[in-house]
Amino acid sequence: MFEPGRQRPVVDNGYWRRIQKHFLLAIGTGFLLLQILFLANLTYLYGTIFKATSRVHNFNVLFVDYDDSGVIGQSVLAAYETLKAPSFPTLIHHPVSQYPGTEQAYDAVCRGDYWATVYTHQGASERLAAAVTNETVAETYSQSPALSYVWNGARYSAFAEGYIMANLQKLIAASRVAYGHINGTGIVQSATDLSKAATVNVLMDPLPATEINIKPTTQGTRIFYNTVSMEMPILQQFFFLMALNGISSDFHLFHKLSPVANSTLRTAVSTSYTLIASLCTTGYIWYFRDGWSVTPTHFTLTWMVLWLYMAINFNIMDIATAYIDAKLMPFFMLTWLVVNAASSLAPLELCPRFFRWGYALPTHETYQLLIQIWSGDGCMDRASRALPILFAWWVVGTALAVMSVYRRCAHAVAAERSLAGEGEAGGRVGRAPGGVVGGGGKGEEQDRSPRSQSQSMVLRTVAGPEAVALHGYKTQESIRLQRRAYGPSYPTPFVRGEGL
What is the DSSP letter of 179? Predict the structure, then answer.
C-alpha cells in the first residue's frame, strides 16, 4: 500500500527487454566463474588425499632386533615381507649398533624421525623356549613382552591410528603366524605337557606385545585440531577486519588521522584482538579436552602459537583487502582457506609431491608447533623450521600491512577531494547566467552541498547533459575510492560514528 500523496513508482515495461541480454550475460559470467572457483579449490582439496592408501609406504617404521637375530626377529621380518605393499608402512631394519638401547629406539619416534618403532626384547626367544618346557616360566611368560611398538598419538592422531597403529597390530599378528611357520613344529615337539593351560596359552600367543603411545590422544574433538581449529582463525580475522573497516569508516579515520596514527591504531587493535581471540580458541580446545593429559604449560604455549598464527592472518587479510579489488576478494578468500586447510589436513607424506609446497604455509607450520607442544618431553621438535617460516610471514606481513594503511589513507583523501570538487562545481553551476539559484544566504550553502537535491535540479536545468554526466562520474568515483579505502566492511551493531 502506498501512502496518500506519495508518488507511485514509474514502471518501465520496456526496461527488461533492453537489459535482458546484458543481465543474462552478467549472471552467466558470475555463474561460470563461481563454478570454476569451487571446482578448482575442491579439486585441490580432494587431491591432497586422493589415493592416499597407495602412499602409506611413505610412513617409515624403525625395526631393531635386540634378541640377537633370534627366531622372533626373523618372524617379524618374514611377516613384513608378506605384508609389504604401497598400502603398508615401510619397515626399516637397523642394527643394534645404531640404536644400542630401547631408549634410543623410543627417541627415534619421539624426535619424529620415524612414525613408529618395533623392537624385540633381549632374550625373548630364550624365554619362549623355556616357557614351553617349564610350567612355572609359562605362567609368567605373557608378563614379559617379546615385542614392543612405539608410536605418537598426538601426531595427526586420526591418520596415526588408522595407518600406523592398525598396521602395527597387523604386523604383530602376522609375526605370530610367521613364527608358527618357522618354528611351530619344533616348539610343539619341545613342549613337555600340552595339558597344562599355561603351556597352551604360550603356544597360542607366542609373541606377546606391548604398545607404547607417547601421547595418547583419543578424545573425539581431536579431529578438529588440524581442520576446523586451523580455519576458524582465518575467518575470525577476516570478519574482524570488516568490522574494523566499518568502524573506521563511521569515524572517518583514514582522512582524519595521519597514516602513522592509523597504522599505530590498527596495530594496537589487531594485537589486542588476536591476543584475546587466540586465548578463546585455546580455551575451547582445553574445555573439550575430555581427559586429555595436558598441562598449564601446554596451554600457555598453545595460546602463544595461536596468537602468532592469528596475527599473521590478520596482516594477510589487511593486505589482501587493500590491494585486491572487492570483486576478486571471494576468489582470494576461498582459495586462501582451502590451500591452508589442505596443508594441515593430512601428513604431507600421504599427499602427492606437488602438495609439499604446503610446508611454506603458516597453517601447516602452526600445526607442527602444536604437535610439538602437545607431544611433550621435547618430542617432535619442529621449531627450527616452523618458527623462521612463521616469523617471516609475520615480519613481511606487518610491513606490507603498514603500506596498505598508507594506500587506504590515500584513497580516503582522494575520495574527500572528489566530493569537495563536486561541491565546488555545483556552486559554480548555481551561479550560472539566468539566476536560477539566488546568491548568498542559506540557500547557496545548501546548493554547494554535493548531496543536495537542489544541485541536481540545477545541473539538469542549467548546465545540460554534460554537467549531469560529470556530476554522476564524480559521485561514482568518490564512492569507488571510499570503498577502496574502507572496504570490505559491514556496519557494526550499536556503533554510531556519523557526524563526528
Answer: H
Looking at residue 461, its pLDDT comes to 44
Rg of the Cα trace of the chain? 35
Residue 116 has pLDDT above 80, yes or no: yes
Q: Where are the alpha helices (DSSP H) in 324-464?
A: 329-345, 362-375, 383-430, 441-448, 453-458
Task: Indicate the helix (H) or strand (E) that contains 131.
Answer: helix 124-131
| Backbone φ, ψ for residue 321 (5° rounding) | -70, -20
Cα separation, 313 vs 315, in Å, equals 5
- Tell me, what's the pLDDT at 201? 82
C-alpha cell at 370: 602444536
pLDDT at 474: 57
Cα-Cα-Cα-Cα dihedral sign, residues 328, 333, 334, 336: positive
- Three-class secondary structure of residue 385 per DSSP: helix
Please state the pTM of the whole predicted model. 0.86
Q: Domains in the chain, start-ordered, CATH in brackets?
A: 52-218 (3.40.1710.10), 220-434+443-500 (no CATH)
pLDDT of 440:
40
Sequence-distant (≥ 6) Cβ neighbours of residue 59 within 8 angstroms: 89, 90, 115, 116, 163, 164, 347, 349
Indicate the residue type of 329: M
